[in-house]
Amino acid sequence: MARYEFYEIRSARNEDAEVGPDGRALHRRSYICAERGDLNLFAWLDADDGLVVFQLLFKEHFVSWSRQGGLEVGVTSRHALNPFARNRGEGVRTLHGTDATQAAAILDAARELLAQSELPPTIDTAVRSALQ
User: How does pLDDT run across 68-112, given as a tens digit for each residue?
Assistant: First the structure.
């Protein structure tokens, strides 16, 4: 049994198409973890429900993957290790890369979280494969 279960947050924004890097329409899906309020997953799907981009956020860390750009790991502007943050609790989060040692630790933590998680079936295999 999974320790963490994600469910989709339905909103009007999810129904609006965004333009992907290749010019095709993408639909955003927002998922939140029922057991942890700091654990969120955003996925952008193409017309065939194929995963094009995802962002996993937890404890102000992020792991992002895209078909075109691959894997990126770092911290948000609200993380204590981000030297550019002034008012960490305010405003929109921005994503910032980090050094290789910290990136490896974040990626390991993300893998551990996913090992204990039940993801929506439409994205489960693709997300897990991207983090191998």
Answer: 889 988 877 655 554 555 555 554 555 566 778 888 998 999 999
Length of the chain as a residue count: 132
Neighbour count for residue 33 (Cβ, 10 Å): 19
CB 78 within 8 Å of CB 60: yes
- CA gyration radius for the chain? 15
Domain ranges of the chain: 4-130
Q: Which residues pair with 78 in a beta bridge?
A: none
Closest CA to 58 of 131, 132, 126: 131
59 phi and psi, to 5 degrees?
45, 40
